[in-house]
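Field: sequence (string)
Field: structure_tokens (string)

Example rows 1 and 2, in order.
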Amino acid sequence: MEKSEWIESVVSRFRQCCEQLQEQLGHAAEGSLLDVADEEIFEKFHPLLREVQQQAIQKQIDRKQKHSDYRRCDQCKKKMRHKGTKSFEFITRAVNIKLAGTYYHCGCSNSKSVSAFVSSGRRFSHQACELTSRYAATQSYQQASKYLRKDFGIWVSHEMLRSRIRDVAGQIKDIRDGNADEYLWEKLSGQRLYGYVDGVLINIRKEGWKECKLLRYQCDPTGQIRHRGLLGPIGRFGRMVRREAIHLGAKQSSEIVFLMDGAQGLHCHIKKNLPDARQIVDYWHACQHIAECADVLYPKDEVQLARWRSRYCHILREHGAGRLVNLMRKSKAGLSEEHKVAAVGKLLGFLQTRVDRMEYQRLLEKGYRIDSGPIESSCKNVVQARLKACGMRWSRKGACAMLEVRCAYMSDIWQDVIQKCA
């Protein structure tokens, strides 16, 4: 069929479908079109659109391969050997397009395949790359494969999606680690930059439960949010915190403030990599330590337990950790039972090493946040929502890949980053 003939044939079939649609619109009662005719119309138009895409691209491939200069090697300029016909499946946002062409090979190890004609050898179009990555990052691979087929007619197996996530994750990591000035926060100048850090346990095959460290940078006035995660040594995580601060332009901010749960390891590595950043222990985490002590002191008296816990949480918030430490020392001196002395001593140990990061009254007066609620939300939405479903276990490579994609997906740079992935 000549070029003009197949175009005329497609136009004629489109015209027939449009006439049928016009007829249905003219006779359909209110609401019946959506209930009955919608599926019928889609079943007629969708295969036709797929055929148009496939025919147009295949005709272009055939035309280019018939050109006399195509068989000439780009490197040695000799005539390449014919190696038969090979097929190639190009995945678009709408459908899978199956293409075929002649494969040539040269003695200098250079080759030419049909895939080079389609988006420079890409298997996925830019739109399909974003779509499949997003579906795989928000639900299980099996579900993503099922709904991509149902919603868009894209046929990809769950194994292909798993491989795709690993490829995309590696590219996202390279992009985010390498582009220092491309994703700067423009409105950060003069603003206070908040950093949140916490850990989430992930079930890794052959290793058991391992901690994934999650970082969240946030600027409240602008609403900008950026995440990074790491399943690895805390030293590497500290360097990641510094690198990400540089990439978003933290030096423009008036101050960097970190809110954490009081873990000494994180405190030391944040201080090492960002020595000028202010660190604050999450107020509610400190209140949990007070509550644990109250449970030991008053195990059978709930009224007294609640009263003791409320009193000392109030003192911590209104007067700071220094005042609370003095009161705890007096309380400890009046105790005789060993387990109660140990409980108060444990609370004192927690407070004494963190006094300078728990002056909540002064912090509130200066407008600082004292809670780490945002990172708790990120732990649930970024990590747990995809990596901690019921009965889910991961390989280390698979977990790291999914974590990288999820952190980019839940950040303000997702659209820009995913468009650069091949």
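Row 2 begins here:
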Amino acid sequence: MKFLMKRAVSVAVVAAIIGAGGAWYLYRSDDQTVFYRTAAVERGDLLATISATGTVEPEEVVDVGAQVAGKINSFGQDKNGNEIDYGSVVEEGTVLAQIDDSLYAADVAQSTAQLMQAKSGLQRAEADIEQMKAKLYQAQRDWERAQKLWPSEALAESSYDAYKSGYETAKANLAVGEAAIAQAKASVAQSEAVLQRSQRNLSYCTIKSPVKGVIIDRRVNIGQTVVSSLNAPSLFLMAKDLKRMQVWVSVNEADIGNIQPGQAVTFTVDAYPGEVFLGEVGKVRLNANMTQNVVTYTVEVITDNSSGKLLPYLTANIQFELSNSKGVLLVPNAALRWSPRPEQVAAEYREAAAESKSGNGNHENGHKSSSNHNIEAASGNGGQGVVWVQQGNYVRPIKVRVGPSDGTMTEVEGKDLQEGLQVVFGEQQQAAGAKTTNPFTPQMMRGRSTSGR
């Protein structure tokens, strides 16, 4: 019996607690007051930028290759007397590497011998033609005497024919000799060309620096065999001048219209946290890239690297400067995006607010249309926007002209705007009386008066 009574009392207590909680919830839901979240209009500086990511690149690089095949025998020395390696500073004409030249030296020796043989052949042909000229002269004189004796019949007919034939043969032999000289000269020229080619290939075994610069990459080691076929193998990658660098930036097609040559740029690199580097836009490359249906353009940013801090291929975080306003009125972007419900607008402004919403093309959901309009205005395209200020328990609109934005704050202009004016950027609801204590939350023991006890 006593157990049943205790159980009934427990059930009654729980029911009372549930009832009290429900009453508190109904009271809280039915009687609520809207509190507007506001921020002051500030006067300050605004820097509007476009953010992008790029890579630091040398302004001009030279890929040094090999035009002949062979084994790398040795490396040259830089101006400090050290073996050519990564980061070596070299002058134009500095020997970078030496390829085994034994085969090419043998080709030069063979070509030299062939040239000497061709020159000897030319000399013999020249000697032969002098002999042929002498024989022609003798045959010509004999033929002339035969012609004088023939009318007097002092010369036999067979002798006459023999002198004539000897003259014609000597003349033909001279022509053959002249042809032999021409052939010998051509052979000499051919041998000289072969020798020059062999000597040039031999010179290619010594890899020299074509420019003054710095070795960025060394792609071969001593003992490695390079093979030259259709494409010359790359041995070294050189930068002509690391005092001037470029940053190759990939810019989205939506932002490329805001990028112009000469535009100021700031960027940072992870290697030097907190340090800002300056640059300017050099050119916008027209060969766009498409990746997953996203079109981007490569922008070249020129920067001075006299300090030598910027290293090739560092990742750079770029800020393209669009505008830099000084001492302008600023409001949070959220204030331009926020839009009240019709019942929150002061009575004298409701009709104008409703017309503004319907004019945005959304008659059924004016709240959404006005919000979209303000979001577009906050993009900083110089359009019209609206901010709201509190008027008692309601809000009233102030039309503004929207300027650039840095993503958080937006430059605005308006005749009714002034520094320090509180603009609404949000709202929160709270029960009237500001008593929002949950009855189920444990309470601290209240002190009791002991008087009268």
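free_text_note (row 2): Confidence is low (pLDDT under 50) at residues 22-31, 360-380, 435-453.
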